[in-house]
Write a structure and sequence with these properties.
Strand order of the largest sheet: 3-2-4-1-5-6
Distance between the termini: 18 Å
Largest sheet: 6 strands, parallel
Number of helices: 14
CATH class of the largest domain: Alpha Beta
Radius of gyration: 20 Å
Shape: globular
CATH architecture of the largest domain: 3-Layer(aba) Sandwich
Oligomer: single chain
CATH topology of the largest domain: Rossmann fold
Number of strands: 6
């Protein structure tokens, strides 16, 4: 059996990751694992810019259309998914292409997460109650473990909740608990990283074009259907593209303002993604789409 190979393609939204991943997968006899916090949901199609069946060109995709919009998930969902997909690759002799804009999940695959203590029903209910006011939960944890919480921003509700779960379930300060339960990397084989970069203004133009296409393809109707079926409660209903469309449906924005708001907020997201990728990943091959495409497709037999 041939040696299993994998690689990851990262980059900001609208950078061309999806099309490149499919081209590389076809060349390298690979399947694709998507790391995207929105494409994982069924029925969230246009706003997530997930590839349709025709766009997938027969390449098996994992990590898309996995959950209903009202089903919760966290990083452990992608960790379990990666393990299953890797096992599938090993059994079928396929390689693996990891692609997505939510690079936090890739970082967790590379660094691992600590085993968390089990919560009782009462403790889980207490966590949910306290997380109704994340600011108070954060301040409480700061008083308990100031050193650990100094590394968590007040707005990072995911990590605040995990720290609260550890504290309530174990009775220990998070810093003490995690020292005794260090994370173990999930990916333990070579994973070359490739990042697509664009000049800022060029990326803005690509984002504006994608936003216009989304509206032409029926974005508003998609959000109307999602709201009718799932209400506005699920976390995904607060995503960029959805929250602005809901404001438009409330009469707050005109259609032209809606398009502008989505493009502006997506541009800000892209900037955050680039900053995260630059600061969190080392030994990355970075370049414009044309450069990265050439490197990946020309090196297929090397």
């Amino acid at each position: 059996m041939k040696r299993f190979e994998q690689l990851a393609i990262i980059g900001p939204t609208a950078s061309g990751k999806t099309a490149l991943a499919i081209a590389v997968a076809k060349q390298r006899d690979a399947i694709i694992l998507s790391l995207d916090s929105l494409a994982i949901y069924k029925e969230v199609d246009i706003v997530s810019a997930k590839p349709g069946k025709e766009e997938q060109e027969g390449i098996p995709h994992y990590g898309i259309d996995l959950l209903s919009p009202d089903e919760p998930f966290d990083v452990t969902t992608f960790i379990d998914l990666y393990r299953r997909v890797r096992q599938t690759c090993k059994k079928t002799g396929k390689n693996l292409i990891i692609v997505g804009g939510t690079s936090f999940y890739l970082k967790m695959l590379l660094e691992g997460v600590s085993r968390l203590p089990s919560l009782s029903e009462e403790q889980h209910a207490e966590v949910m109650y306290q997380m109704q006011n994340p600011k108070n939960a954060y301040e409480k944890l700061v008083s308990v473990d100031p050193e650990y919480m100094s590394h968590i921003p007040p707005g990072d509700t995911y990590r605040i909740q995990k720290a609260l779960e550890v504290y309530l379930a174990s009775g220990e300060m998070p810093s003490i608990y995690f020292m005794a339960n260090p994370p173990q990397p999930v990916i333990d084989e070579p994973l070359p990283l490739f990042e697509i970069r664009w000049e800022r203004e060029v990326l803005r133009r690509r984002i504006r074009l994608r936003t216009k296409q989304m509206l032409q393809e029926g974005l508003i109707d998609e959000i109307i259907a999602l709201e009718k079926k799932y209400t506005r409660s699920p976390n995904c209903m607060k995503a960029i593209g959805i929250k602005e469309t809901l404001a438009y449906l409330d009469g707050i924005y005109t259609k032209s303002v809606l398009e502008e708001k989505i493009a502006i907020n997506t541009g800000r997201l892209a900037k955050r993604q680039e900053t995260f990728n630059r600061s969190q990943f080392k030994n990355v091959v970075r370049g414009e789409l044309k450069t990265i495409t050439q490197k990946l497709l020309e090196n297929v037999d090397k």
